[in-house]
Amino acid sequence: MIAGPALATDMLRITSRLIAVLEREIEMLRAMKPSELQNLQQEKIVLTAAYEVHAKALQANPAALDGLDPHLRDELRGAVALFRQTLSDNEVALRAAKETTNRVLQAIAEEIQQKTQGAPSYTARNGTQSTSRVRNEPVSIALNQSV
């Protein structure tokens, strides 16, 4: 098991790196550059796993932080608080990007539906009609050649 000061130092380093990754991800989401997010995913996965391991180690042995330099303890607390806030901001940005994507897809689908339903077509009875009515009527086809 890692000793208290080393555990705290590692946790501080990992948390700081994870905050930086999440902040970059937030920037990319706000800039609507989701294709660039893939580059961060592996680093985020590795850092998240390391963070979880260190957090569990601290929870399992809270005495590991006894006697820790007060400055390092305060720095670690501040980093964890900033991490939680950044994580919350990241969640908001992810939800906003998802909602924006869904709205764009819905608008595209509605536009396609309007274009296909509103396009007039020729009929023998009354000249033109919308394609939405044509789809509901049977169509006869005659061929001049045998198939």
Characterize the structure shown.
This protein has a two-stranded antiparallel ribbon. β1 and β2 form a beta hairpin. The chain has one domain (4-118): Methane Monooxygenase Hydroxylase, Chain G, domain 1. The mean pLDDT is 83. By secondary structure, it is mainly α. It contains four helices and two strands; from the N terminus they run αααββα. The chain is 70% helix and 5% strand.
Q: What order do the strands of the largest sheet run in, or round the barrel if closed?
A: 1-2
Helix content: over 70%
CATH topology: Methane Monooxygenase Hydroxylase, Chain G, domain 1
Question: Could you state the order of secondary-structure elements as H and E?
Answer: HHHEEH
* Average pLDDT reading: 83
Q: Any idea what the shape is?
A: rod-shaped
Q: Number of helix segments? A: 4
Would you state the CATH class? Mainly Alpha
Q: What is the strand content?
A: 5-15%
Low-confidence stretches: none
CATH architecture classification name: Up-down Bundle
Number of domains: 1
Q: Mind summarizing the main beta sheet? A: 2 strands, antiparallel
Span from first to last CA?
Answer: 81 Å
Radius of gyration: 30 Å
